[in-house]
Write a structure and sequence with these properties.
Keywords: Carbohydrate metabolism, Glycosyltransferase, Pyridoxal phosphate, Transferase. It is a single chain. With 819 residues, the chain is of the alpha/beta class. It is built from 34 helices and 22 strands. Strands 1, 2, 5, 6, 9, 10, 11, 12, 15 and 16 form a ten-stranded mixed sheet that branches. The chain has a six-stranded parallel sheet with strand order 19-18-17-20-21-22, sandwiched between helices. A two-stranded antiparallel ribbon has the order 3-4. Strand 17 (546-551), helix 23 (560-576) and strand 18 form a beta-alpha-beta unit. Helix 21 runs antiparallel to helix 22.
């Protein structure tokens, strides 16, 4: 008998249907008999929100009036995915929804698909933030997620006739925002520009302009916790939206200019920043949401107090800086404490450094955000003064510790020279209590390489919290077949809230009946993905082939180029007869990625992948043997269909460059095997699932470092491996560009002359491991056993565990009602 622990609301399906009907008739003015699916979706969301409202209000009240420290998670993005199924699950309303909607004559799946995925995030950073706010609520920890309510969010991706990425606005709010609650009564003023003047003994900022930050609240229900936290996203508005005098002069565009300028701040996620205007907008966005969030936190925890005792702020809330985007919050809190509340520097600094913590998500020096001091000074002149004073005092402190001059210069927050830069990662490290990496290897390299000087001076500041993903969305919802099998195998569904219980599946890897059921689930998932793909993209992958997936942001260090070169080499072997068709393992290679609009090399790689797909998929000699599929606009919806169907997950970034990754965790939890380098969380996944259940290849960090130091010659690898030479030459000769030899010239020249991320050096090892993979895959039962062991040993990679690590090591708080 299976023990059920999942939340289930006392609301019946009849009551749910009645509430939807009443909402349709009384609030939307639509009879159920004439309602469309979108009408029903809007009504269902309202019913779910109403059902959660009492818990939300109670959670907020307990957070404000209790003694448990809250968490303020500051993030520029939240990649939420569809909210309806997750909210139904966590609220215990899934069955009632399905039965109630059917009784009204509608298909529950169509109602769920009516939701437009929120355009509030881009990739791993935003997905991680979404997982963490889910886990915080599920663990009962009081928390606010703070960010921006982007009108368009990240772009929608399509491909033109040449295979090039084309960016389109993501009109995710075209149908309204039924989940978001706008609260004009809690708006905040955010100021910019102007000058700083001396008044008596104090510095006074006189801003040139300001905008209104309007909060849009989303309810974040926890799974089986009874708690509902808040995701508060800020939307920019003008205080002077319309100039009637200007309008009456027939200058209609001028009349709304203040409105347009203000709303631009929350218009688009990550505006292209190759221009000064783009950089200015990005800095405006970052300051906008952290300034509003800090003001909101003070108003929330010290309601109605003109002179609150902000010395207690670190006991009321701690702010987690999710990467460098919110780091401007450190000088902002200093400004608030000193200028608005009259604290002296030392008191303000003590409060600030105990309130902030910083998560670093990169090892790439170029990805550690820096801002021109001139730009900060023009936009936030008081903050630049405060940053310079932080830097001055920090340098003085280093000198008093006996730190060498060269090291002090390397650690300056504000660089010297004619064009000084503010190093935001350094400011975050100095201005917070803790700095954490997001995987064991990443955290070690942060201390040994990226932030080495700081770890030497402040060793106790550095922590590791390996990333995690929520099992609710990425197993329970995305993979119901596997979820049911796990529950059956364990005899309980408690694993959904305690992923360590998956360890109990280990003995079942030797149970032939369970292995057979596992194979059937994977096959059904592949068939379901093929049907979804045909319906959504017009491409139907063959479930009889291996589904080989590489999905992640398109970046050179993630090495999608390595995968496409291997595909080309395989294609060449089929064409020239080197590969015996009878011995080829049929596979469908699936790419999913967006490239930043201004990232020319990444966009050229996308063009190459699409044109390789075009050539291979139109060639009768490859039919049934090799296929390449690049679905446009990779998002959470696509991930939830693809990940459960994938056989082989590609995690092939250069060793030492990937901070952690979270897609690797999702794939392992869903029964895919990984081929990967010793990079990011791959290291920990391999340790936990077992070396024999992970396909390792490639250079390791010490070897990469040695090659950099001794001099790396990519052309020597090209000359030494016939397969690689053939693949590169095919790209150069125009095989995938209709004979145009210049189309991919920048890629080819980079591969042969620079190849910073060592694609050429790892190619041979990668091709060799693919042969090992193919032999393993031919043993269907053996492959399934390995996959089951991946699932059984991936419980560590739950976002619940990651949040518990933060609670214990960094935030020093816990669930509501616990000290």
């Amino acid at each position: 008998m299976v023990k059920k622990t999942a939340p289930r609301s006392q609301m019946t399906s009849e009551e749910f249907a009645r509430a939807v009907r009443e909402r349709l008739e009384h609030m939307q003015g639509v009879a159920p008999s004439s309602a469309c699916v979108d009408d029903v979706y809007q009504a269902v969301v309202a019913v779910v929100r109403d059902h959660l409202m009492d818990s939300w209000l109670a959670t907020k009240d307990m957070m404000v009036h209790g003694s448990t420290k809250a968490v303020g998670y500051l993030s520029a993005e939240y990649l939420l995915g569809s909210q309806l199924p997750n909210s139904l699950l966590n609220a215990g309303l899934t069955d009632q929804f399905e039965q109630g909607v059917r009784s009204l004559g509608f298909d529950p799946e169509q109602v769920i698909e009516a939701e437009h995925e929120p355009g509030l995030g881009n990739g791993g950073l935003g997905r991680l933030a979404a997982c963490y706010i889910d886990s915080l609520a599920s663990l009962g920890v009081p928390a606010f997620g703070y960010g921006i309510h982007y009108q368009y969010g990240i772009f929608e991706q399509s491909f033109d006739g040449q295979g090039r990425q084309v960016e389109h606005p993501d009109y995710w709010l075209a149908g309204g925002d039924p989940w978001g609650h706008e609260d004009l009564n809690r708006s905040r003023r955010v100021s910019f520009g102007g000058r700083v003047v001396q008044e008596g003994g104090r510095r006074v900022w006189e801003p040139a302009w300001c905008v209104k930050a309007v909060p849009v609240d989303y309810l974040v229900p926890g799974y089986a916790s009874g708690r509902v936290n808040t995701l508060r996203l800020w939307e920019a508005r003008s205080y002077d939206e319309f100039d009637l005098e200007t309008f009456n002069r027939s200058d209609y565009l001028g009349a709304v200019k203040p409105q347009v300028e203000a709303e631009t701040i929350s218009k688009v996620l990550y505006p292209e920043d190759s221009t000064l205007e783009g950089k200015t907008l990005r800095l405006e966005q970052q300051y906008f949401f952290v300034a509003a969030s800090i003001a909101d936190a003070i108003a929330t925890f010290y309601p109605g107090q003109d002179h609150p005792d902000l010395a207690t702020l670190p006991d009321r809330i701690c702010f987690q800086l999710n990467d460098t985007h919110p780091v401007i919050g450190i000088p902002e809190l200093m400004r608030v404490l000193i200028d608005d509340y009259g604290y002296d520097w030392d008191a303000a600094w003590s409060i600030t450094t105990r309130t902030f913590n910083y998560t670093c998500h990169t090892l790439l020096p170029e990805a550690l955000e820096e801002w021109s001091a001139e730009l900060i000074g023009s936009l936030l002149p008081r903050h630049l003064e405060i940053i310079r004073e932080i830097d001055r005092r920090f340098v003085s402190d280093l000198a008093s510790r006996g730190t060498g001059t060269d090291q002090v210069d390397r650690m300056r927050i504000v660089t010297a020279g004619p064009d000084p830069k503010v190093r935001m990662a350094y400011l975050a490290t100095v201005g917070g209590s803790y700095v954490n990496g997001v995987a064991e290897l990443h955290s070690r390299l942060l201390k040994e390489v990226t932030l080495k000087d700081f770890s030497q001076v402040f060793p106790d500041k550095f922590m590791n919290v390996t990333n995690g993903v929520t099992p609710r969305r990425f197993v329970r919802l995305a993979n119901p077949g596997l979820s049911d099998l796990i529950t059956e195998g364990l005899g309980t569904d408690a694993w959904v809230a305690d992923l360590d219980l998956l360890k109990g599946l280990e003995p079942l890897a030797d149970d032939p009946a369970f292995v057979d059921r596992f194979i059937q689930v994977k096959r059904q998932n592949k068939e379901d993905f093929a049907a979804y793909s045909r319906r959504r993209y017009g491409f139907e992958p063959d479930p009889d082939t291996m589904f080989d997936s590489i999905v992640k942001r398109l970046h050179e260090y993630k090495r999608q180029s390595l995968k496409i070169l291997a595909v080309i080499a395989q294609y060449a072997a089929i064409k020239d007869g080197t590969a015996d068709p009878a011995g080829i393992l049929p596979r469908t290679v699936i790419f999913g990625a967006k490239a930043a609009p201004g990232y020319a090399m990444a966009k050229l790689t996308i063009r190459l992948i699409n044109n390789v797909a075009r050539v291979i998929d139109s060639d009768p000699e490859t039919r049934g043997l090799l296929s390449v599929f690049y679905p446009r606009n990779y998002n959470i919806e696509l991930a939830e269909h693809l990940i459960p169907a994938t056989d082989l997950d590609e995690q092939i970034s250069q060793a030492g460059k990937e901070a952690s990754g979270t897609s690797n965790m999702k794939f392992a939890l869903n029964g895919a095997l990984t081929v990967g380098t010793l990079d990011g969380a791959n290291v920990e996944i391999r340790e936990r699932v077992g070396a024999g259940n992970f396909f390792l290849f490639g250079l390791e960090v010490p070897e990469v470092t040695r090659l950099y130091e001794e001099g790396y010659d990519p052309r020597s690898y090209y000359e030494a491996d016939r397969r690689l030479k053939t693949a590169v030459d095919m790209v150069a000769s125009g095989v995938f560009s209709d004979g145009d030899r210049d189309a991919y010239k920048p890629l080819v020249q980079d591969w042969l002359n620079k190849d910073y991320f060592m694609t050429m050096a790892d190619f041979s090892a990668y091709m060799d491991i693919q042969s090992t993979i193919e032999n393993a895959y031919r043993d269907k039962e053996g492959w399934a056993r390995k996959a089951i062991l991946n699932v059984a040993n991936s419980g560590y990679f739950s976002s619940d565990r990651a949040v518990e690590d933060y609670l214990r090591q960094i935030w020093h708080t816990g669930p509501l009602g616990q000290e």
